[in-house]
Design goal:
With 346 residues, the protein is an alpha/beta fold. It has helices at 42-49, 130-143, 159-170, 182-190, 204-211, 227-233, 258-266, 291-303, 322-331; strands at residues 2-7, 15-20, 30-39, 73-80, 92-95, 102-106, 116-118, 151-155, 174-179, 195-198, 217-222, 237-245, 270-273, 313-317, 338-342. It has two domains: 2-127 and 309-342, Alpha-Beta Complex (Quinone Oxidoreductase, Chain A, domain 1), CATH 3.90.180.10; 141-277, NAD(P)-binding Rossmann-like Domain (Rossmann fold, 3-Layer(aba) Sandwich), CATH 3.40.50.720. Helix content is 26%, strand content 25%.
Amino acid sequence: MKGLRIIVPKEREIIFEEFEIEENKIKEDEALVENIYTMISPGTELSIYTGIDPEVYVPNSWCHYPFKPGYIGVGRIIKVGKEVIDLKEGDVIYYFSNHTSHSIIRAGNTVDKSFFVKVSSEIDLKLVPITKFGTIALTSLRVSSFDSGDRVLIVGLGLVGNLAAQIFKIAGGKVIGVDLSKKRIEIAKKIGIDEIINSSEVDVKEKIMELTNREGVDIAVDAVGDSKIIIEISEFVKDMGEIILLGTPRRSYETDITPLLRAIHLRWITLKGALEWCFPLYKCIGNKFSYEKNSLYILDLIREKKLVVKDLITHIVKPQDFKSAYEGLLNNKEEYLGVLIEWNRE
């Protein structure tokens, strides 16, 4: 059987590669997955596609060219090895997957078991890949010292920022969102974010101070991954507040860092990283949270319709339109937000 996968061989290029799937060679602790959907992760994938991430040029780095993009998938199990007891043929799973028609995962009782969770039949499968952005967003809540009633600023209302805003609101926060995209602001208003600031129209600092009785917010979350934003939002946070780095800073930025350090020192502001990859995949001693626990929580919120995600998916494309999806996410942010790749060959 032939499979198809997407490769980024070098900056701004996409190729399609066929590969052989030898079903009779599936190991006893493995399962073969036929993908239904994969989903583009705009921040990570576009930084590699455009060469912004410097590690694309570093041999043996995790993202060096040629690169197999993607890490979000929902698929159906079509074959299992003899040692696999948690899965059976026909099960649908949410798991880590490249942009490929088929994957092989390790699903036996092994220490290097692949990450996956079964998907309830009650959930629209098109919504399942949003889980990944939900768990990324959830990390900002998990690492914070948030308490109900806190004022929380979310800068950037893309997939991750929108979901972070919803998650803090569900937890009892008073949320302020900031973006300059009319489309993203429109979606955020539709799902009921408390206050939304268009940064292209007003003075953001002045508006935040107006909304917070001149105190500033308890927690400010950078959901963009922009060093300049991180410096700026230190002025929006109240004394003893927190700045959460939810996005990954990638572009070089030169500035005087002393004002940020003075804010941290003199006003006891805490700066925290919130990289989801620091969680263990499954429950283990010493860790309250895991990928599995976080994913099941987000899936429940989607199933219960407490997390509103339908409007976050703007495009569903076939694999052959993959490059146009990347370019749309790069150059047409008013139309492109969440993009699914549909892998059935009909």
